[in-house]
Amino acid sequence: MPRPQLDADEIRNSIMETAEELIRQRGAVDFSVSEIATACGMSQSNLYRYFESKEAFYEAMAGRWFEELNTLMEETIASELPAKEKMFAFFANRLAIKRARFEDDPKLFESYMEIGHQHFEVVRGYIDLADHYLAVIVAEAMAEGHFEDMEIDHTVSLINLMVQPFCNPDIMMNMWPTSTDDNLRIVLDTIFIGLKGKSPVKLDVAPDLRIAS
Amino acid sequence: MPRPQLDADEIRNSIMETAEELIRQRGAVDFSVSEIATACGMSQSNLYRYFESKEAFYEAMAGRWFEELNTLMEETIASELPAKEKMFAFFANRLAIKRARFEDDPKLFESYMEIGHQHFEVVRGYIDLADHYLAVIVAEAMAEGHFEDMEIDHTVSLINLMVQPFCNPDIMMNMWPTSTDDNLRIVLDTIFIGLKGKSPVKLDVAPDLRIAS
Amino acid sequence: MPRPQLDADEIRNSIMETAEELIRQRGAVDFSVSEIATACGMSQSNLYRYFESKEAFYEAMAGRWFEELNTLMEETIASELPAKEKMFAFFANRLAIKRARFEDDPKLFESYMEIGHQHFEVVRGYIDLADHYLAVIVAEAMAEGHFEDMEIDHTVSLINLMVQPFCNPDIMMNMWPTSTDDNLRIVLDTIFIGLKGKSPVKLDVAPDLRIAS
Amino acid sequence: MPRPQLDADEIRNSIMETAEELIRQRGAVDFSVSEIATACGMSQSNLYRYFESKEAFYEAMAGRWFEELNTLMEETIASELPAKEKMFAFFANRLAIKRARFEDDPKLFESYMEIGHQHFEVVRGYIDLADHYLAVIVAEAMAEGHFEDMEIDHTVSLINLMVQPFCNPDIMMNMWPTSTDDNLRIVLDTIFIGLKGKSPVKLDVAPDLRIAS
DNA sequence: TATGAATGAGAATTCATTCAT
DNA sequence: CATGAATGAATTCTCATTCAT
């Protein structure tokens, strides 16, 4: 009578939780498989039952970071908001989560950043996905008459640039009090008002961060 | 007749230059002592004549990054400018150097960042020193009547916060076009005008980054 | 009511058949218990119900190779043929099987050779047994008047030597078209005619392989 | 004053000699780097100073086996003999060496065979080289009027086939007394006399091993 | 001053094997 | 009868570091 293998995922998760605990204590740099295994109270070899390789483990850890964010993005995209509100939600929802995480444990937050830097493919995947979704929203916005005379890719990349402080955790970490919902709204307002096809170039020169009261 | 030991320093330097070259080519992650040694055309063991350990080597590399910046800070501090101008110089001078370095070789710049992350004690030392110098300037400013009713530590940390985009290379790397002299001046103006003891708290909410055209 | 334990043997057999399939696909080198288990659609641990160890499994595989050959040898020995015919049958019967196997799947054949090399004890057992049987036949032949003045051991080993290309699969693999029934008969004829006690040494020089059209 | 690094090759050699000793004692299967290292009285890590990897070590061992044989082949090729004599020398010279080695230590011989099986690329290289040289000789023979109406590749492969028992150590090991100079000469005679373009196909069927008195 | 030689600790990974269920 | 979980020993390989010369 085979035991249910349902726990596999649970164990995987509990391993990752333990690993998080480890990270909380000693940072994310350079821990060895055996260290994690010990922390989990199991043998190295057994860890390999749950993660194909150390690399895979790190990927899973990175994935874990993005799980909730991904769900949120998808939900936002699926919602029926008008384009501008959808875009706001798109950024604000995720901002809220990141902020919460940071406030919960800044050091852990930073450690996840580090993992992200070291396993950038995973991050890159998330970024690409987010870019894709943003493009979808921008397309909707265009259908509603916004961003006239602009090309969609150009628009997406400009928005991405201006919105960095509310997206990019590296920056957020350093500019914490600035990365607020309020400022996000101001930036998006500016974008929706100001971004037209006439003078896209000016923006590279102009104050791309006219973040205001 | 023992030659002056100055050679040692020269060699140390040339090693570090070679290492920089290496980093330029292949990033800063994970190079081994033997790799550096080979690049320098010497034996691993000989490297140990010049650096006590790999750790020490990295520290020296990190220190190297700050050398010029440190000198500049000291010179600025020693100068006879009025407090506000001194503070501007204090930040602008270093900003100029960092900008130059970044423009010279962005990848190398990033690699140094990485080294900095991994050997944060060195960075921390520099930051603490900069904080100290900033405190000195703030004290001078106070003596001149600025920042009335503010405590010095609080003032220093608030200034630090607002001035991040012109200081913190991690942020600079991401917000390159924004981290300009002009914007720096605007920020400092704002600080000198706005920073008074009455409502320090407001700043967390208020536009801490009124960076303008 | 315990079912007859015969099942066990059946399963053992089906495992080995699956293993053979595996070998057909990817050679015999270095497969792991878990690989076999997966191929058999069962757990590693369950394999241990049927084979005490990996070693035992390989032994069984090697044994499998010899099973049919062993039976054949025994039958031939038990038969009532005159010694010379019996000896011919002794070699020709097995040659036929090996040839059939080789022609059926040369790669599998080679893989079994490999297993044989790596688990030579099993092979050795078979060889010793064959030697023993050959000795029996030689004894019968002597009783019939052949090989006069020869010592039985010497005779056996000389015959063995000359008969290698029809016995030793390593050689057969390389000299396939030569290892025919016809040539076998010629060799045996030569042996029965030529092998007398007077000048056993001559054979080292003389035509030990007068294999002819 | 740097110590001479001349010894590197010597050490490499002495390691291989020790390894040979090891092989003599316990066969060639599956020894680990650490086992060799221990036998050599050095640390595993130090072995890596002399061989880039275990694979490289095995390759060197295999290469070692062929060194002398390669030299001999080259010398023979360079010699001024008539084609037929050159071909005889080509095979006989190497046969002599292999025979000597076998007689010196049959078990070691067998172990080298095993290494060869497991690192066939090296062996393959040698075989290809030998094929190439044989082709050169055959070309010379053709220039002298032999093998008329035959294609060179076909001729080479036919010769290779017939000459196996004097070339292929796997076979030699099993047919030791047969793989003599005398028989080699007979085979080559047969080849030079019999191998003509008229009926190349017949040979596959016909007595390719008419090794005679 | 500089070298080559050598090492020991530790890395990831694999695998045969055991055992409670 | 069969499973999944777990392990421990082994393997190859890397690397910072030391030391006699």
UniProtKB/TrEMBL annotation, chains A, B, C, D:
One of its GO terms (molecular function) is DNA binding. It comes from the Bacteria. Residues 9-69 form the HTH tetR-type domain. SUPFAM superfamilies: Homeodomain-like. Residues 32-51 bind DNA. The keyword DNA-binding applies. Keywords: DNA-binding. The keyword DNA-binding applies. This is TetR family transcriptional regulator. It comes from Alterisphingorhabdus coralli. The lineage of its organism: Bacteria, Pseudomonadati, Pseudomonadota, Alphaproteobacteria, Sphingomonadales.
